[in-house]
Design goal:
Chain B: The chain crosses the membrane at residues 45-68, 102-124, 136-160, 241-261, 305-325. The structure holds two protein chains of two kinds. Chain A is mainly α. Chain A contains 14 helices and no strands. The longest helix of chain A is centred in the last third of the chain and has 36 residues, at 257-292. Chain B contains 16 helices and no strands. The chains are: A mainly alpha, B mainly alpha.
């Protein structure tokens, strides 16, 4: 806001992506500060993970890494309450399975909504959009009862199966498919005698690849982070997701902070890795979804 | 079923045919045509069916069934669960712990959402400029959103700790006495809201940014010709044009914010987490639902009643928000 006044007089500039307004030093300053505030808690988590517990009692707090990481990891993996490795493995299985399924079913349904004609199409699409607004989390109690009925309590399918499709995924793929796949291409494939399934597989899916990748990344990260439902249904401490391992770690009587932070740091690593490699695509996906929604 | 009929159909025609090679060809056409019709008419429903079936079983049915359960005295261990009508709701209305959780939920929601959306709007305005290293800055604001909620809550719990927390240390540097963040309602709300805002401000900023970039440039150019300064342009063009996006973000924040669970739970690690602290300082409605529906009480009926009260609250708050924002926008354009 402060920077607005002195910018008003300047003519709109053509450079740097054709933006209307140029950035002043204050703009950069504010954004760099925001970036630092964003990164600091994560950075500090890694610092504590490499230090001994003494670091927690030091003022001013240490802000550079130490050499205690191996010892912390050893204590973490040996912690009898956390089952940390099982948690990591379980989370990888759950997030992986959900991701593959969401991308597959969403692209299939998104293609149908975008490119196929059928009765009730618009109404059903509205239903899908409406499901995104429904707080389904409030149904945990009957969902829990359902899982007991199926004998799925404490088992991974209890957290996998309810996540196999999302309204968000279908909607996102529908939006992308309606502009990324040309009708001519589909017609041409039909004339050549392709069935709809073949069209989906050979024509549509390749065209949807960029959006499918973003959807996959977002789904993986959301599922990896999921806490409430696993917390409700996975009560066996020996078979947790990694988020439940973290909770078990942090809820002990004796708070071994460097060990706990080592856990949170390792649990965050896969997400950071995905974000650093695919950050541009993820940002593009979020912003594109916003414009059309 | 219908698929089998289509395949069976050519048989009568096939026996009537003469030589084997032409017979095959003739028979082939109707099958193909019908398969084709089936493909065109029916297969779209097959492609969208998985979503609807799974959503019905694992989304809609549990939510609806919650209402049914809430009308019963339903205990996990009890053999039968008699219908009790609105008794659970009546009990809720007289339950101080329930009202405490309502106040906490609304308090945290207001303290977190209002600054969050204003900050996001401002950040988006900053990002909507000719920036160098654009992607880097965007990643910078988004990175909190991709970290694990549980991990963040644990880290913030430490940052806000009374003895050696970094925040109290910083406050001490500027001469403010250490605050027992978990010790009172307001401070616990502020701490939890900080976590929520840290995580979601950048995400909302990117959504606002996307909408800002879709605003036609000539609007600003015309306004600039008319002598409107940037601050005025922001409030008279940007904000009104963003109204649908703002409404969208407010609704999403309402739905998410009122269901807040993980952050306050882990913030209170070690001290009665599900109760949100020893005196229920930051117990939200979802936490209270959990406390009643699962360990230690396993009172499904009472928990379900809480879930539906929360559902009603979400609907009411969402509607109020939309009405307020609509009103604001109208005043804005009406004042032109």
């Amino acid at each position: 806001m402060v920077s607005l006044g002195n910018l008003a007089a300047r003519p709109p500039r053509g450079g740097a992506g054709g933006q209307l307004w140029s950035a002043s030093r204050l703009t950069y300053g504010a954004l760099i500060l925001t970036g630092l505030l964003s990164v600091f808690p994560i950075y500090w988590m890694f610092v504590v993970a490499t230090r001994s517990n003494d670091a927690m009692g030091q003022l001013p707090p240490p802000v550079t890494p130490g050499g205690n990481l191996p010892g912390n990891v050893e204590r973490l993996l040996g912690n009898p309450d956390a089952h940390f490795l099982t948690g990591m493995l379980n989370s990888a299985i759950v997030a992986g399975a959900v991701t593959v399924s969401v991308v597959f079913f969403s692209s299939l349904a998104g293609f149908a909504f975008a490119k196929l004609r059928f009765r009730g199409r618009n109404g059903l699409l509205l239903v899908i959009i409406a499901t995104m607004m429904v707080p389904t989390q409030l149904g945990v109690i009957p969902l829990y009862m359902l899982m007991s009925e199926l004998n799925w309590n404490d088992r991974l399918q209890a957290v996998i199966v309810p996540g196999l499709v999302t309204g968000f995924g279908v909607f996102m793929m529908r939006q992308y498919a309606s502009q990324a796949v040309s009708n001519e291409l589909i017609e041409a494939a039909r004339v050549d005698g392709c069935s709809t399934v073949r069209i989906y597989w050979n024509v549509v899916l390749p065209a949807l690849r960029p959006a499918a990748a973003v959807l996959g990344l977002l789904t993986f990260m959301t599922t990896w982070n999921d806490f409430l439902w696993p917390y409700a249904v996975l009560n066996d401490p020996e078979n947790p997701t990694v988020q439940l391992s973290l909770r078990a770690l942090s809820n002990g009587y004796y708070q071994d902070m460097s060990q706990i932070f080592t856990g949170t740091a390792i649990a965050t690593l896969p997400l950071l890795f995905v974000f650093i490699v695919f950050g541009r695509q993820i940002i593009g996906g979020i912003m594109e979804g916003a414009v059309k929604a | 079923m219908s698929l089998r009929l289509e395949v069976d159909a050519p048989h009568p025609g096939a026996t009537a045919g003469s030589g084997p090679p032409p017979r095959h060809r003739h028979a082939d056409r109707p099958v193909r045509a019908r398969l084709n019709r089936f493909d065109l008419k029916v297969s779209p429903y097959l492609y969208i069916a998985p979503f609807f079936i799974l959503f019905a079983i694992f989304g809609a049915y549990p939510l609806g069934y919650t209402l049914w359960v809430s009308l019963h005295d339903w205990d996990l261990l009890a053999e039968d669960h008699p219908f009790v009508g609105l008794e659970n709701y009546q009990r809720l209305l007289g339950d101080p712990d329930f009202w405490n959780s309502v106040v906490n939920t609304l308090g945290i929601f207001v303290i977190s959402t209002v600054p969050q959306l204003l900050l996001a709007l401002w950040l988006a305005h900053l990002l909507n400029r000719g920036l160098r290293a654009r992607t880097l800055f965007r990643m910078g604001v988004l990175i909190p959103n991709i970290t694990s909620t549980a991990a963040v809550a644990i880290v913030f719990g430490q940052l806000f700790s009374r003895e050696f927390g970094m925040i109290n240390w910083l406050l001490d540097l500027v001469g403010v006495d250490g605050i027992d963040w978990k010790g009172s309602k307001l401070t616990a709300w502020i701490a939890v809201s900080t976590m929520v805002d840290w995580r979601w401000t950048g995400y909302n900023a990117l959504i606002f940014l996307a909408a800002m970039q879709a605003i036609p440039r000539d609007l600003y150019e015309a306004a600039a010709l008319d002598g409107a300064r940037q601050a005025r342009q922001f409030w008279s063009i940007t904000v009104p044009m963003l109204r649908p996006t703002i409404i969208f973000c407010v609704i999403v924040s309402t739905i998410g914010g009122l269901q807040l669970f993980t952050e306050p739970l882990l913030f209170n690690s070690g001290t009665n987490p599900i109760r949100g602290g020893p005196m229920r300082e930051s117990q939200t409605m979802t936490m209270y639902m959990f406390e009643n529906a699962f360990a230690p009480h396993f009172n499904f009926g009472y928990g379900s009643a809480i879930a539906w009260m929360l559902f009603a609250l979400i609907a009411i708050v969402a509607i109020i928000n939309v009405l307020v924002i609509r009103g604001l926008g109208k005043n804005q354009t009406g004042g032109e």
